[in-house]
């Protein structure tokens, strides 16, 4: 039975590695997959899902304007697909998550989403919030803080190495911009008496 899956974590937990491995497992058995990633994320190049360990694969892209039900239906019209994989799922809109639920329910196609749960201020991304509400199964992909505890938060740094405590929710970046931390060390990183709204 087809399901909507949400695999979530902080930065640098290996989400893309797991996605690529799962897709490879299907292909190894002679089944085709359909890979999608956010068009705005060009760190590995336009339309490419890549892992920090050096593996990657070409993918179709989506923007917040795309009808993902129609996009996936059009792909199915070109030939059989065993599973759809969505990378950077935090960038989905609520409506797009509902469209993915329709893909599962009405087209019978499993959809596996991989993305961040929270942003650098500890707030849920809209796509992640919708997936937490609608997914049939959720799996946490774990990574660790420098202290050895499970990392559940992510801090954003500016060019001087100072933690950023305001700004746009979306800023594409990697290790030079973000660091995954446990809640205690996240609080220490963003503590600022001039910003009482922060979780200090």
TrEMBL record:
Residues reported in the UniProt entry to bind ATP: 9-16, 87-90
Q: Name one GO molecular function term.
A: thymidine kinase activity
Q: Where is the active site?
A: 88 (proton acceptor)
EC number assigned by the record: 2.7.1.21
Which cellular component terms (GO) are annotated to the entry? cytosol
Which UniProt keywords are given for this protein, alphabetically ordered? ATP-binding, Cytoplasm, DNA synthesis, Kinase, Metal-binding, Nucleotide-binding, Transferase, Zinc
| Cellular compartments annotated | Cytoplasm
Q: How does it assemble?
A: Homotetramer.
According to UniProt, the name of this protein is Thymidine kinase
């Amino acid at each position: 039975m087809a399901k909507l899956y949400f695999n979530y974590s902080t930065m640098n937990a290996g989400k893309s590695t797991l996605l690529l491995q799962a897709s490879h497992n299907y292909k190894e058995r002679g089944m085709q997959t359909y890979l999608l990633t956010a068009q705005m994320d060009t760190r590995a190049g336009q339309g490419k899902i890549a892992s920090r360990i050096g593996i990657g694969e070409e993918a179709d892209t989506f923007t917040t304007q795309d009808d993902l039900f129609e996009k996936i239906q059009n792909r199915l019209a070109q030939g059989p697909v065993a599973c759809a994989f969505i990378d950077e799922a935090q960038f989905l809109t609520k409506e797009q998550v509902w469209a993915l639920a329709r893909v599962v329910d009405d087209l019978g196609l499993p959809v596996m989403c991989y993305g961040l749960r929270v942003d650098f201020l500890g707030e849920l991304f809209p796509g992640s919030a919708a997936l937490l509400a609608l997914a049939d199964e959720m799996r946490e992909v774990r990574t660790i803080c420098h202290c050895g505890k499970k990392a559940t938060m992510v801090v954003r740094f500016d060019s001087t190495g100072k933690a950023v405590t305001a700004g746009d929710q979306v800023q594409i970046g990697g290790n030079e911009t973000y660091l995954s931390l446990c809640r205690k060390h996240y609080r220490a990183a963003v503590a600022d008496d001039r910003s009482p709204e922060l979780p200090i």
